[in-house]
């Protein structure tokens, strides 16, 4: 059964199933929900109703393919179990409520639709990442969408956004500072915006809106795509023209964190022309929940990642020219049916809209077409990236270096009997593994990267053992030129920002508060906007830091035992530099680097699960 009937205020904790179903009371959608099977978990409902205003905006960002919702039974996953069909039903009900209240309700997205789950990355050979999953976005009434950096790592993906995605939104898919080079008339290459640079439109209530869609200063984009720096964009003539006329409010959507990035440049450029016009900013990219106000007549909201958060913002507009602070409210919703039903004042039996059901069914059909339920084995327990210390039994990174790589890389490998050390970068793992069936979808979610494994034979054990500490910055004779935090950030790496956020909430909570509270695990946000932002109250996720590089346990032997030094190709040049810094007997070059196995990083977990989890 899916959920008990829900009565506002009458029940504190509902019984719902994370992905649920079996015998479904309203028979007509039993097929649509057949994958929603056990286990049954309790979800805490929101702590209080939403505060509506004149302008209300629902925000998604960094969805990265999580349109089927989070499907595992361990917390916090069930809190994020709503799928995109449930979300569509929620939006439809909220639109109705907005009409009844005679206020505006808009829907915006801040980008990063690509890379993250099987729905986007599990396409058969010859396909294009996220092409099919993206078709569900245009079934929702999005008012404005902005491009993300993950739309730009591969030219074919950016081209697909330009040719097939943007046109569905009729000028509302924005890429103010992002161009793509395509064949123009007569075949000459021309650089054009991927979507549109700005949009001007009126809300249902007739309010005038001017919108931009800005990307942070991203440098990891593919050839034939162009990202213009934010400071250059605000000096463009088109920019001045676009913001000249005063709207009722500016709606600045963009793939750029609201804090510690370049929103102030955009904000100040608009403020210089319009000293009091309300400016509503919707950011993204750093995968955190965050909010701040650049002045009293503006607000900037960022709504997390992976459909673990849906943002809600409301503003009361006053008269033109007013200098008073705006009344603003923001809320971070846990995307699940309990949340959605609570805020749309629906029971489980009256919640699904026909459109919502159609989307859920469409997503499941896509999952079937990509064979995402293909089971490799059964994970005996949860393995997490940062909720368990490294090294430990619960650490996914420990599982990888202690068990997965030593097993998977030596299957059918003629070098299996030669002692080795296997090194990888911990950034090659993207998401936790949870107890239960381990499927093709779980494999792509945990590690979507197609890195190959290489090795250098006959490395003396004493030298090989020293590589990892140098890579991790512990040694001082490596002379490595690893990239700086700024360079990694510019290329799109947000692990550090997201990790710092988790660390901060973990430290703030302390063990006493954690134990005293009878709450499920989840985000506990402290931001710079007034009041409490989280919609459902949780106890914070534990956080343990981990090193940038990890390795298997070195074999025993004398210092000069010759071993295979195995590593992912992604870090090959760094490994060579470190080796040459550690010793002078031999100068290692790329010609010493050989292919170790044909199994790629995004396959090792599946191979391991077939061998050990069956
Ligand atoms: C960039 O696109 C143009 C036009 O389609 C093409 O002629 C050129 O080869 C592309 N450049 C690269 C590096 O692929
Ligand atoms: C983007 O495309 C527009 C339209 O073709 C062009 O005028 C502009 O120079 C391009 N901008 C960049 C930064 O390439
Ligand atoms: C108005 O908002 C600004 C910025 O958030 C704040 O610094 C200021 O104290 C507020 N003023 C009043 C009167 O609340
Ligand atoms: C890890 O697992 C092993 C084997 O099951 C067990 O002996 C050990 O106590 C566990 N360690 C921790 C920290 O749970
Ligand atoms: C190893 O070889 C066997 C027999 O050829 C084959 O069935 C199996 O798929 C191979 N395993 C891997 C992981 O390549
Ligand atoms: C809260 O405590 C009660 C009683 O100990 C327990 O039954 C319930 O499952 C707990 N709820 C959560 C969310 O942990
Ligand atoms: Zn992202
Ligand atoms: Zn991003």
Question: Any overview of this molecule?
Answer:
GO terms for molecular function: hydrolase activity. InterPro entries: 5'-Nucleotdase_C_sf, 5_nucleotidase/apyrase, Calcineurin-like_PHP, Metallo-depent_PP-like, Nucleosidase_C, Pesterase_C1039. This is Metallo-dependent phosphatase-like protein. Residues 382-576 form the Putative 5'-nucleotidase C-terminal domain. Residues 56-288 form the Calcineurin-like phosphoesterase domain. The protein is α/β, with parallel strands linked by helices. It has two domains: 2-44 and 55-369, 4-Layer Sandwich (Purple Acid Phosphatase, chain A, domain 2); 375-507 and 536-612, 5'-nucleotidase,  domain 2 (Alpha-Beta Complex). 26% of the residues lie in helices and 21% in strands. The protein has 15 helices and 26 strands. The strands form seven sheets. Strands 6-5-4-3-16-17 form a six-stranded mixed beta sheet, covered by helices on one side. Strands 9-10-12-13-15-14 form a six-stranded mixed beta sheet, with helices on one face. Strands 24-19-25-21-26 form a five-stranded mixed beta sheet. It is globular, with a radius of gyration of 25 Å. The model is unreliable at 1-39 and 475-481 (pLDDT under 50). It binds 2-acetamido-2-deoxy-beta-D-glucopyranose (6 copies) and zinc ion (ZN) (2 copies). One zinc ion (ZN) binds at residues 62, 64, 112, 150, 285, 287, 305. One 2-acetamido-2-deoxy-beta-D-glucopyranose binds next to loops.
């Amino acid at each position: 059964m899916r959920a008990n009937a829900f009565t506002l205020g009458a029940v504190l904790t509902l019984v719902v199933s994370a992905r649920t179903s079996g015998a479904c009371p309203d028979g007509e959608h039993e097929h649509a929900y057949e994958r929603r099977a056990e286990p049954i978990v309790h979800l805490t409902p929101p702590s209080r109703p939403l505060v509506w205003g004149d302008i209300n905006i629902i925000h998604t960002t960094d969805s990265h393919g999580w349109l089927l919702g989070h499907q595992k039974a361990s917390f916090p996953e069930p809190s994020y179990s709503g799928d995109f069909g449930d979300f569509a039903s929620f939006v439809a009900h909220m639109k109705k409520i907005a009409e009844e209240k005679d206020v505006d309700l808009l829907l915006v997205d801040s980008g990063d639709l690509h890379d993250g789950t099987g729905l986007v990355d599990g396409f058969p050979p010859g396909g294009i990442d996220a092409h099919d999953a993206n078709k569900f976005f245009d079934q929702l009434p999005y008012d404005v969408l902005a491009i993300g950096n993950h739309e730009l790592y591969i030219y074919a993906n950016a081209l697909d956004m330009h040719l097939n995605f943007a046109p569905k939104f009729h000028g509302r898919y924005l890429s103010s500072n992002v161009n793509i080079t395509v064949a123009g008339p007569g075949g000459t290459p021309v650089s054009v915006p991927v979507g549109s640079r700005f949009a001007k439109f009126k809300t249902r209530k007739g309010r005038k809106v001017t919108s931009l869609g800005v990307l942070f200063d991203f440098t990891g984009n593919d050839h034939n795509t162009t990202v213009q720096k934010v400071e250059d964009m605000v000096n463009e003539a088109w920019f001045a023209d676009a913001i000249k006329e005063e709207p009722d409010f500016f709606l600045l959507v963009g793939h750029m964190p609201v804090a510690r990035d370049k929103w102030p440049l955009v904000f100040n450029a608009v403020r210089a022309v319009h000293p009091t016009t309300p400016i509503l900013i919707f950011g993204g990219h750093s995968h955190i929940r965050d909010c701040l106000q650049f002045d009293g007549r503006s607000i900037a909201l960022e709504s997390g990642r992976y459909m673990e958060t849906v943002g809600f913002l409301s503003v009361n507009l006053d008269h033109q020219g007013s200098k008073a602070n705006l009344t603003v409210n923001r809320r971070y919703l846990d995307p699940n049916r309990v949340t959605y039903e609570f805020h749309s004042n629906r029971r489980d039996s009256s919640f699904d809209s026909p459109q919502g059901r159609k989307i859920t069914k469409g997503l499941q059909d896509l999952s079937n077409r990509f064979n995402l339920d293909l089971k490799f084995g059964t994970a005996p327990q949860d393995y997490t990236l940062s909720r368990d210390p490294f090294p430990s039994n619960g650490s996914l990174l420990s599982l990888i270096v202690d068990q997965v790589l030593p097993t998977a890389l030596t299957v059918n490998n003629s070098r299996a009997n030669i002692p080795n050390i296997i090194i990888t970068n911990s950034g090659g793992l993207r998401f936790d593994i949870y107890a239960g069936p381990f499927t093709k979808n779980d494999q792509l979610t945990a590690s979507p990267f197609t890195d190959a494994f290489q090795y250098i034979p006959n490395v003396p054990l004493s030298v090989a053992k020293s590589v990892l500490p140098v890579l991790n910055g512990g040694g001082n004779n490596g002379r490595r030129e690893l990239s700086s935090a700024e360079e990694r950030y510019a290329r799109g790496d947000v692990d550090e920002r997201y990790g710092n956020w988790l660390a901060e909430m973990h430290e703030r909570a302390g063990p006493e508060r954690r134990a005293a509270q009878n709450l499920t695990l989840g985000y506990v946000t402290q931001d710079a906007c007034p009041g409490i932002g989280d919609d459902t109250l949780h106890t914070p996720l534990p956080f343990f830091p981990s090193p940038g590089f990890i390795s298997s346990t070195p074999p025993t032997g004398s210092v000069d035992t010759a071993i295979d030094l195995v590593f992912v190709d992604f870090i090959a040049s760094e490994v060579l530099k470190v080796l040459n810094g550690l010793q002078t007997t031999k100068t290692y070059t790329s010609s010493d680097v050989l292919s170790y196995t044909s199994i790629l990083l995004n396959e090792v977990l599946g191979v391991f699960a077939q061998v050990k989890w069956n």
